Amino acid sequence: MSLRSLVRELPPAYFAMVMATGIVSIAAYGLGPTSIGRALFYLNLICYGVLVVLHGLRLLWFPRRCIADLSDTSAGPGYFTWIAATAVLGSQCIVLAHAERVATALFVFAAALWLVLSYAVFAALALRRHKRALEAGINGGWLLAVVAMQGLAVLATHLAGDWGQPVQLELHFAALVLWLAGGMLYLWLAALIFYRYFFFTLAPGDLVPTYWINMGAMAISTLAGSLLIANSGARAPYLQSLRPFLEGFTLFYWAGGTWWLPLLVILGVWRHVIRGYRLVYDPLYWGLVFPLGMYAVATEHMSRSMGLPFLRPVSVVFLYIALFAWGVTALGLALRMVAGFRRAAAGLRATARG
User: Fold this and answer.
1) Which has the higher per-residue pLDDT, 15 or 341?
2) Contact between 208 and 229 (Cβ < 8 Å)
3) Tens-place pLDDT, residues 202-228
4) What SS3 string covers the chain?
5) Most buried among 29, 50, 169, 275, using CB within 10 Å?
6) Which residues contact 132 (CB under 8 A, 6 or more apart)?
7) Is pLDDT of 354 > 70?
């Protein structure tokens, strides 16, 4: 496959690989072997740079295709991974490298992407002339819009703690607003997804890996809330008056995400074991790795901010589950790349013989 063909077919949601690698890196750095966390951080910097170049080429070479993706109910929500990946990488820069200036630049870039892409995607979907039926159009990928907002809230809270005044108050307020707006958006979208799952027939092909974002969106909302609770003192006194509200809704998000977990596992077993749906590498599987890593990080932060130490072992268990899932998905990507190189080499040899 030529570079041009690769770029043309590149899904907008491929930045989920950066999201997954970034959150597993943060989880490993905070809970497990820090060396793995650092190695994944450096790898993520490379992945982010490569994807920025590839998507930049796609915008340059195939602008009409990129614009068409905005109004596609399957591809359009994938653009939210651009925002979330940038925010997660920014959080990595703070947590692992204490690189405040780099993280600030990434925050500004992510905020600009959010202002442009979020309204572009939703406007394009709303104004689309021929709309797909609910059962064909809605899926867990739509909740990437929530993940993008909460990712910005998490990064804003990290930056507020490192930069201090005079921008600390403003960043905490921005994080609070994004956290609340993201929660509102989750309730709207999750109701539609819940309705689609339980009142329309499900086929194995309908259960794309991004349905795990149902849980991941609640996990990152838990993380954002936990960070706001942790900062509800001298750093942001006005958050202190909201602390009972912050704690209640943070626990609400964690409980909702935890409720999703057994159901998602059951649906996965039904898809691959009972119905025999073939398990092969798909870029969307990064959307399964991310929620697992995020659940580990969110549970650990909530256990600290709310004084629930008995939850920390849950974080450690999910760290290793996330590491395993990341390794399997990365292996699938590596095998796909090797197969692609072999096909390209065979094609070149055939051309040379001819």
Assistant:
1) 15
2) no
3) 888 888 888 899 999 999 999 999 999
4) CCHHHHHHCCCHHHHHHHHHHHHHHHHHHHHCCHHHHHHHHHHHHHHHHHHHHHHHHHHHHCHHHHHHHHCCCCCHHHHHHHHHHHHHHHHHHHHHHCCHHHHHHHHHHHHHHHHHHHHHHHHHHHHCCCCCCHHHHCCHHHHHHHHHHHHHHHHHHHHHHHHCCCCHHHHHHHHHHHHHHHHHHHHHHHHHHHHHHHHCCCCHHHCCHHHHHHHHHHHHHHHHHHHHHHCCCCCCHHHHCCHHHHHHHHHHHHHHHHHHHHHHHHHHHHHHHHCCCCCCCCHHHHHHHHHHHHHHHHHHHHHHHCCCHHHHHHHHHHHHHHHHHHHHHHHHHHHHHHHHHHHHHHHHHHHHHC
5) 29
6) 73
7) no
Higher pLDDT, 231 or 1: 231
Q: pTM of the full predicted structure?
A: 0.94
pLDDT value for 111: 97
Q: State both tokens at 302.
A: 């909530």
Chain-centre distance for alpha carbon 346: 36
pLDDT tens per residue, range 312-328 = 999 999 999 999 999 99
Measure the CA–CA gap between 313 and 7, rounded to whole angstroms: 42
Q: Quick one: tokens of 226? A: 């936990």
8 Å CB contact between 305 and 230: yes
Q: String of b and e for 95-129 (b: at least 16 CB within 10 Å)?
A: bbeeebebbbebbebbbebbeebbeebbebbeeee
Class of domain 3-353: mainly alpha
State pLDDT tens for residues 27-37. 999 998 899 99
Q: List the end-to-end C-alpha distance of the chain, in Å, as a whole number.
A: 19
How far is it, in rounded angstroms, from Cα 81 to Cα 70?
13
Q: Which two tokens stand for residue 92?
A: 């990595």
Look at residues 193, 158, 146 and name the one whose alpha carbon lies nearest to residue 30. Answer: 158
* Two structure tokens written together for 99: 């690189």
The larger pLDDT score, comparing residue 215 to residue 73, is at: 215
Q: What are the structural domain ranges in the chain?
A: 3-353
Cis status of the peptide bond prior to 204, with omega within 30 of 0: no
